[in-house]
Structures are given as C-alpha cells and as structure tokens.
Design a protein that fits this description.
Blueprint lengths: L1 H22 L10 E5 L8 E2 L1 E9 L5 E10 L13 E3 L3 E5 L6 E12 L9 E8 L4 E4 L8 E2 L3 E8 L7 E8 L7 E3 L5 E4 L1 H4 L4 E11 L8 E7 L6 E5 L8 H15 L4 E4 L13 H4 L5 E5 L17 H6 L3 E5 L12 H8 L1 E5 L9 E2 L2 E4 L8 E2 L3 E2 L4 E4 L4 E6 L11 E9 L2 E6 L12 H13 L1
Parallel strand pairs: 2-8, 10-16, 17-18, 17-19, 19-20, 20-29
Antiparallel strand pairs: 1-3, 3-6, 4-5, 4-7, 7-8, 9-11, 11-14, 12-13, 12-15, 15-16, 21-26, 22-25, 23-24, 23-27, 27-28, 28-29
Helix pairs in contact: 3-7
The structure holds calcium ion (3 copies).
The site of one calcium ion has 9 residues, from loops.
C-alpha cells in the first residue's frame, strides 16, 4: 500500500515537472495597460485654470503600477513648471495650476498607464482643457503719502488681490530701476520689504522701485512703481525732526535745534519727517536707517504726547543702543501717559525706576519753571518760558546720570526732586531722555549751549 501511494506521488511530481518544462516554451506577450482620464465638467467651455484631474488604468494580464503624464500648451503660453516631458506618478489624481497669461489658454494633457512589466499604454488618454485666469493686482500701501526723499533705506508695504482668490497669489517680484533680471522674489506672505544701503549700491539720486504680483497661473499684475530720491548721509549723527508745520511751534523748534547743532556738531544728517514725506514715517526704515549713524537725536519738543512719530522707534532703539548707538530724545511724550515708547522697555534703556506725578496734580504742567542742573557734569540752570502740559518726571536708577530736575518746594507739600533729564549707559551705547521742552527753556539764553553739553556728555 505504501509503495503504491509513493509511486502515485512520484508520478504526479514528474507530471508537474513535465508540465513546467512545456510552459517555458510558450511565450505569451505582455498586454499593455489601457488608460482613462476623467473630468467632471465639460471641457468645451473654458474652465478655471486650477484643475484637479483624475485618471486610472486597467491591465488585463498584470497590474497598473503608475502613470506617466505630460502637457503641451498653446504657443505663447508660458511653461511655468508644467512638465512637457513624460513624468511618472503613482497617484491617480493631481492638482494642476495651468498657466494662462492672456485671460484664456488651452493646454493638453496626455496620460498613459504603466504596468508591472514597465509597458505603457501606446494610446494615451488625452484631455484638452481651455482655461481662464485673471491677472492679480498689486498696490503699494500709502502710495500717495510715501516720502519723495529717503536716506538709502526704505521700507515699503503693499497689498495683493486676485480675482481667483488671494490665496492664488504665488508671490511678488521686486526690482530697482531696470534691473529686472536680478529681481527679488518674495513669498505671498511677504508684503513688506526692507531695502538697506547695500541694495542701492551707492547710487544716490532718483531711483524707481518696481513691483509685480504673480499668481499660480503665472499671470502677472501690472507693474506698479514708486520713484523717489535717495539722499546720501552726512556725518555720524542723525537728527530727526518730528514736529511738523501743522503745529504752531514748529518753526521755533526747528530754528532752536538747527542753531544749537550748528554750533556744536561739525556735520550731521537731518531727517525732517515733514519734508521727507510727511504723513507716514515707516518708509524711512528706522531699523536700518539708524545703523548708518553712531548717534541719533530725536526731537518732538514741545508737542503734546501722542502727536509725534516717535513710536516708530519703539522696537528699534533698545537694540541700537545695546549695540553701541547713542540715542537722545527730547519729547514730552516719549514715555508715560500717551507715551510713544513702551514704558517698561524705556525704563530699562533710559535707566529709570519709575515715573511719578507732581504732588497733588493730575497733569504735570511745566509753567515757567526754573530747571536745576546736575552741576557735577557741568550743566547750568535753565528757565522755561511758557506753559506746557504732559511733562513726565523720572526716578533715575542709582547708575543713571541725572541731568536736570526741579527741586521740591516749588509747590506746597512737594518733597521730592522731579527729574526731567537722564543719561544712561546701556549696553555699548548711551540713552538720554529730556522730558521738558528744551527749545522753550531759553529764558537765560543758554538752552542751546546746555543742549550741546548734553550731546557732548552722550558722546564722551
Ligand atoms: Ca500587462
Ligand atoms: Ca488670477
Ligand atoms: Ca520741523
């Protein structure tokens, strides 16, 4: 019995082996797969240029392992990253942003399935797609109010829009004058650019900035431009005039500081915010502008707090002073009520423990005060010649050099000195703050020379 079973099994094995030998001789050609492409909407009518396309394949004697696709476009349409050569994918679906630059264009897709033996469909599925796109629009923010002159630093903002949705804006291209081949390409999130001296390559005078938006269909907006004058810097000191002729006291302030600086500073650059554009100040790019100078003097004296552009410096001056710059502010509104600068940061940089009110008052009016100096650093007494509101009193830290104060006893029940001027070493630089109207403190005829002494103390 066992012998018979063994014999049958052996015969079966031999039969199988014989069969295999026969099959090796039979050649069955691999069948190429077939490809199909689907589109939900009719493509006779132009459709939006962003298209999700689906395809699938069928292989009779194996399996489809992937697809190859390629595009051909109407003459004149940009390629724009659309593959013109066969491109492999394992996916059944892809989103295409089909380039259109003149409102309508036609692109043709070919897709061919590939089977497990690498054979491709010799008759690819095709799809002809007329698509439409509208160009984006870009506009420079505050365009009409931008300064007509800046030093070689500029910060500019813009807004992009696209009829197909602002999310279809792919980016922006920005260049100076005719230098489009070296354009800066910016992501859609970048709607501000900061230009620094290196960008201007020491070419002063009239320059033109050009800006376009580009959408995902490679359509571009009209070029918007901004032409302005770049002024070369003079000296290591920048004076920012932050009081405009909209204020009655402007001429007197400007004259005071121009004469004072003219008497004690050999050369300096002046940024009169009014003359250099006026109503907006951010284009001056203060973070970059201050780096061109060892010292910045900023005056808005005697403006009431809240009416100056000093807040542009709020996140600029701490690091500027820390890294060695000197910053002197003459402003009734630098810190404290309606202050332009963040108090906590200002306290640290200017070396102040706190601000305080004159005893019994809700506003600290500065009315024909005699202002006492820190004689130890060579300063002299000043006298204010008018009435000014909003002056802040500072409590200098132990390390801070007090410059000016009014003593107790000016009003009944006053017991403390009211410090109106401080100078502090902070990091590698010095920060000075005068909270009283220096330009209106000339009753003794010495305010300009006292101001020069403060500058000298800062530069020591
Ligand atoms: Ca096959
Ligand atoms: Ca568009
Ligand atoms: Ca002015």
């Amino acid at each position: 019995m066992r012998v018979i079973i063994l014999g049958l099994a052996l015969a079966a094995v031999l039969a199988v082996l014989a069969g295999c030998a026969d099959m090796q001789d039979i050649t069955v050609p691999n069948l190429a797969p077939q490809t199909y492409v689907a589109l939900a909407d009719s493509v006779r009518n132009p459709t939006v240029y962003i298209q999700t396309l689906n395809w699938w394949g069928d292989d009779k004697d194996g399996e489809v392992v992937g697809f190859e696709y390629r595009w051909s476009s109407d003459p004149g349409l940009p390629g724009c990253g659309l593959p013109a050569d066969w491109t492999f994918t394992e996916e059944n679906s892809k989103v295409f942003h089909l380039p259109v630059t003149d409102s309508i264009g036609t692109h043709s897709l070919e897709v061919r399935a590939m089977d497990n033996e690498g054979a491709v469909d010799e008759t690819p599925a095709t799809l002809r797609l007329p698509v439409t796109n509208n160009p984006p629009v870009v506009r420079i923010y505050d365009r009409g109010a931008l300064p007509d002159t800046t030093f070689p630093a500029l910060r500019i903002r813009w807004v992009g829009d696209d009829p197909e949705g602002n999310e279809t804006i792919l980016g922006y291209k920005l260049w100076l004058d005719g230098n489009e081949q070296n354009a800066r390409v910016l992501s859609p999130a970048d709607t501000t650019v900061s230009l620094v001296p290196a960008d201007f390559e020491d070419r002063f005078g009239t320059r033109t900035l050009n800006l376009v938006a580009i959408d995902s269909g490679c359509d571009t907006s009209a070029v918007v431009t901004y032409t302005w004058y770049i002024k070369e810097t003079t000296g290591d000191l920048l004076v920012v005039d932050d009081i405009t002729s909209a204020h009655a006291g402007n001429a007197k302030s400007d004259k005071f500081y121009a004469e004072a600086l003219g008497s004690c500073v050999a050369a300096y650059s002046e940024l009169a915010l009014e003359r250099y554009g006026g109503s907006v100040s951010y284009p001056h790019n203060f973070p970059e502008l201050v780096k061109m100078f060892e010292t910045v003097i900023w005056y808005s004296d005697p403006l009431r707090p809240g009416t100056e552009s000093l807040e542009e410096m709020d996140d600029v001056y701490p690091s500027y002073v820390q890294s060695g710059g000197n910053f002197l502010v003459v402003s009734l509104g630098a810190i404290g009520t309606d202050g332009a600068l963040t108090d906590s940061v200002g306290f640290e940089v200017f070396g102040i423990d706190g601000l305080y009110m004159r005893n019994g008052s809700s506003d600290f009016d500065c009315k024909r005060w005699v202002i006492y100096p820190n004689a130890g650093v060579g300063l002299d007494t000043l006298k204010v010649s008018g009435l000014y509101s909003g002056v802040e009193c500072m409590r200098p830290t132990a390390e801070t050099t007090p410059l000016f104060h009014i003593p107790p006893g000016v009003a009944a029940a006053d017991t403390v000195d009211y410090y109106l001027g401080v100078l502090n070493s902070y990091g590698g630089g010095k920060a000075g703050l005068l909270t009283f109207p220096m330009s209106r403190s000339d009753s003794y005829g010495n305010a300009q020379s006292e101001f020069c002494k403060v500058i000298n103390l800062m530069l020591q």
